[in-house]
Design goal:
This protein has one domain. 45% of the residues lie in helices and 7% in strands. The chain contains two helices and two strands; from the N terminus they run ββαα. The longest helix has 17 residues.
Length: 56
């Protein structure tokens, strides 16, 4: 988690624990669009985000 003078905190989202590629919700590129259209990938992303939030 990173903290700046204008944000309390923020963290990058990843598809899963082994992925090093950041999911950027600020820009709807083809990779993010394909994740959002694929039910299994979307569930995996949601599970990863929820797990990350619970740790914090």
């Amino acid at each position: 988690m990173k903290i700046t003078h204008w944000w309390l905190g923020w963290k990058h989202c990843y598809l899963d624990k082994t992925s090093l590629e950041i999911i950027d919700f600020n820009k709807l590129d083809s990779k993010l669009a394909s994740i959002l259209r694929d039910e299994d990938k979307l569930k995996k992303l949601i599970k990863s985000i929820v797990s990350s939030i619970k740790k914090i």
